[in-house]
Amino acid sequence: MRSSNPVFSRRGFSRDNNGYAGFDAPPQAGGPAANPYAGTNPYAQGGNPYAQDAAQGTQAPQYAPQTRRMTMDDVVLRTGMTLGTVIAGAAVGWIFLTKSLGFAVGAGLIAMVLAFVQSFKRKPSPALILTYAAFEGLFLGALSGAINDVPKLAGAPMQAVMGTMAVFVAMLVAYKTRIVRVTARFTRYLMIALLGFVLLSLVNVLFMAFGGGDGLGFRSGGMGILFGVVGVVLGALCLAMDFKQVEDGIAYGAPREESWLAAFGLTVTLVWIYMELLRLISILRD
Questions:
Q1: pTM value?
Q2: Cα(148)–Cα(247) distance, integer angstroms
Q3: Which of 53, 95, 207, 245 is most buried, with most CB under 10 Å away?
Q4: Residue-level pLDDT at 221
Q5: In angstroms, rounded to a whole number, what is the distance separating the alpha carbons of residues 62 and 59?
Q6: Helix (H, G, I), strand (E, B) or coil at 179
Q7: Is 61 in a helix, a strand, or coil?
């Protein structure tokens, strides 16, 4: 099952049998005792972890390469490192770039390019991911500082931070208690909704660029509030997809390096939720 997160959608634990196969089915219960994921483990060699041994007429288990396996501790540690870099960059941007939004926009564009580069790389690059986090932090810090300097919007960035934390915790609880279940139908409908949301956003940007004003009205008023709420909800549902990918990666014995990819994907989603909340709060307080 593929995540709606563009990072996970491109690479997220979805490779062919010469590398890492996609998670198209959950681990099967009742498999051979030696390997509970027999037949479905994408990290086993040869595509079939229990290939038939023609010479002996028995089934010979073929295990995944002897590499360090990804654990939840790995994911938590690397996510903490990535988010910590974003926070450090945000502090610098808030202090030094609030009055220089041109530099802030440049940092945002660099972060976007780095994100796309990592998304299309075959393997996660810790240095690239942390560099992305640093530039993303610079952009977020400068933008948040500029918004905070507006008297009627003072405090909005902190509210967006608290809101992002609340969304993360709420979705994690909903996922762990199976209130939210990530299924094939869930994925299909979410992808359709995301595509529609992105297309509307692009059309709105074009109208703003060539027609002036607020474009289609997605940046203010009742329509802006509705659009912001939808963006936050979609981001929250993407978190559930990311949790599913992490859970499957650990269950299937993904290599330890994949924890960097998990950290990258979670960071991208959290940044998106923060940006949507910041825009929504700004509209409500304006």
A1: 0.79
A2: 37
A3: 245
A4: 79
A5: 9
A6: coil
A7: strand
